[in-house]
Design brief:
It is a single chain. It is built from nine helices and 15 strands. The strands form four sheets. The chain has a seven-stranded parallel sheet. Strands 5-4-1-15 form a four-stranded antiparallel sheet, sandwiched between helices. By secondary structure, it is α/β, with parallel strands linked by helices. Strand 8, helix 5 and strand 9 form a beta-alpha-beta unit. The radius of gyration is 20 Å and the shape is globular.
Length: 321
Amino acid sequence: MRSVGLWRFQVPMDAGVVLRERRLKTRDGLLVRLTQGEKEGWGEISPLPGFSQESVDEAQAVAMEWLAAWQFDANVVLPEMPSVAFGLSCALAEISGELPAAADYRAAPLCTGDPDELFAMLQAIPGEKVAKVKVGLYEAVRDGMVVNLLLEAMPDLRLRLDANRGWTPLKAQQFAKYVNPQWRERIAFIEEPCKTREQSREFSRETGIAIAWDESLREPDFTFEAEPGLRAVVIKPTLTGSLTKVREQVATAHSLGLSAVISSSIESSLGLTQLARIAAWLTPQTIPGLDTLSLMQAQLVRTWPNSPLPCWPVERLERLL
C-alpha cells in the first residue's frame, strides 16, 4: 500500500533578507510525505524566488499530478521541474534507504555585513575555520576592505565569497585592489564575480583569486571543464533537480579535480537536514554551505541541531493531500 501527504508552508523570514533586489518576507514551499508499507520518506519542494524558473503554485500542480500517479505506480518517472524532482527524490531515497542517516551539520557561517558578528561565530567553532561572505551588495572597495580585515585578523581563516555576478570588471578590480596579495590564496573561491563567465575568468587571471561556478551550472550551454583559476562548483540541489542529477554533478566535478560544495537555497529545517545528509554522503571532505536557517523565524517538522527556533509540527501547515 502506498499513500501520500502534501502540505504547503509559509515561514516568516527575518527582516532584511533580500534576493536579487527583492525582499523575501516569507519562505513558501511544500512538504511531501510518501508512505509505502511500513516505510515513509519526506521531501521539501521550495522553488527559490528570483532563481527557480518555477513558482510554488506551478510546483504544487506538478507534484500533485505525480503523487496521484505514484500511489498506483511506484515506477512513475520523476518530473523534470527541478524543485519537484529534488523533493520527491529525497522522499523516495528515504523510503529505499539510499539517503544515509549520517549528516554533516558543519556550516560555513554566512556574513552579510557585520565582521564583528562573524568573528564571534568563528571563534566558537573548533577546527577548520571557513566562512562565507556575500559581496557585491555594497561598494566594491568596502567589500575589499572587509575581506582584507577578516583575513588579516584570523590567519587560519579561509573565505568563500559570493558576488552573484554583481560586479563589472572595473568593480571587481576595485575589490581586488584592497585585498592584500599575500592573503588572496586564503580566499577559497569567489562565486561568479562578474556578469559573464569570460569576465570572471579574466578577473581570476589578473588577480590570482580562484573562482567557482554557481549560476552557470544551470545554463544550457554550460559544460563541466577543469580550467585555470577554477577551484569549485557550488551545487544547489533545489535548483538542480533529482538526487541522481546531484550525484552526477558531484562525481563529474570530483573527476576534474574540482571541489563540489552542497549549498542551500534557503530551505526549511527539514530540507536543510537532508542537505546535510547529502553533503556527508557525497562531499564528506568539504564543508557545505548550509548556514541559512538563521534567516527564518521557525523550523519545520525536523530540527537542526542546537537551533533555538521553534519547530512547527506538520499539523500547523495547510494540508493539500
